[in-house]
Amino acid sequence: MRTETSITIRAPLDKIFETVADLSLWPIILPHYRWVKFIEQSPTRSVVKMAAKRKWIPVQWTSELEIDRERKEIRFHHLKAFTKGMRVIWSFMQDDEEVRVTIRHDLEHTIPLIGKFVAEHIIGQFFIGYIANQTLQHMKRHAEAKYGS
Questions:
Q1: Exposure of 2 by Cβ count < 10 A (0-12 exposed, 13-18 middle, 19+ buried)?
Q2: Nearest CA-CA partner of 17 in 143, 121, 146
């Protein structure tokens, strides 16, 4: 299963990148995020436990987080639960006065027979698609209000 969700934000690339990279801000600026807890933390690699909600349904996961300032990428590797093994890449592309922010999720389905359906429709469309879209919409509002031109 692969999903991609994108949005354009009218704010400086570095400000957007650093806002996204600061996971401690997420529960403050993203109303659908319940909390973020750091299990291990360093400037470029951390292990985080995160919790959000899809409307009224609570979800949580544990991920390894890598922040690559040179390539302007933020990468997550899910370590537990239904999304174990999922790779998530946030990428940032400058386009004139806007920045295109894209979140790509890649997950191999591992449940025999129903795995592809579960990965694509339940995990991919129902949970990931909804939460990623909400995340980008709220990041856009926050970044444009705080840093926009």
A1: exposed
A2: 143
Q: What is the pLDDT of residue 87?
A: 93
Chain segment 30-85, per-residue pLDDT in tens: 999 999 999 999 877 899 999 888 788 888 889 999 999 999 999 999 898 777 88
> Is the full-model pTM beyond 0.85?
yes
DSSP letter string over the chain? -EEEEEEEE-S-HHHHHHHHH-GGGHHHH-TTEEEEEEEE--SSEEEEEEEEEETTEEEEEEEEEEEETTTTEEEEEE-SGGGTT-EEEEEEEEETTEEEEEEEEE----STTTHHHIIIIIIIIIIIIHHHHHHHHHHHHHHHHHH--
